[in-house]
Amino acid sequence: MSVSFESVLKQAQARRKLRVWSLIMTFFGDAIVPRGGAVSAQTIQLVMKQFHISPGAVRTAFSRLTNDGWVIREKYGRNSFYRLSETGYDPFAKASERIYAAPFEETPNERLVIAIAPNALGDTKATKTHSAAPSIQLFDPDHPDIAERISQNWFVMDAEPRSVPDWLHAELMPQELADAFDELTRQFEHVDVSSPIEAIAVRTLLIHEWRRFLLRTPTIPNGILPNNAPIRQCRRQVKKTYQDCLELSEQWLTHYGEGPNGSLPEPQNLRDRF
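-> structure tokens emitted (274 positions)
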């Protein structure tokens, strides 16, 4: 049984109010950056119309984004075009590796790094990112931030886990987030993407919601969570829905997307996602 984009949108709105500026930033990072990075205000308005967002609300959002330094406005004749500033581009670029990573079809039998601090680390966002206990952090061996997160007086070892108990799963993946990933999986499982404009709208909402939950989740070593963990099942669904949307949504961008030089350039590296 298929469900409409309108139904999926209502589910998202029931969780919280969608912020116009945040949706625009998602659309930029997902759809416009691979196509040269600059797009007309009118193109954005056409996409946001699918979310029942008025042109006036889009203009207000762009005014805020411009004033805050997240986007740059360029004027060509009577038309306005926008591109992400360095400030706006950096967060999405840094998160892209996580957002578009391929799903693991099996739980890999990998080594990990265990780092034990001499004292409890406290209850902060930075220290809870990889926290298995108040003084213990877990990392993949190739994690890029490992040197920044481990102090010289910590006890650090490479290890290969023999067993992973349920309490560790619960510590690394709080039930609230696990439930959110389950809900997101069900939300997009049967969504209809039969038209190009709905495909770009579904794609934008999909990445917007996936990104929001994913970036609240610890970067958990690959060998820790089981294959049926909600976040892994959700990533598989995100991949499927994204690929279902990709051809039609790119058709819409090709025919209706407008950049400073006319049509948007052909996309780069989209096939590498997921």
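Residues 112-159 form one domain.
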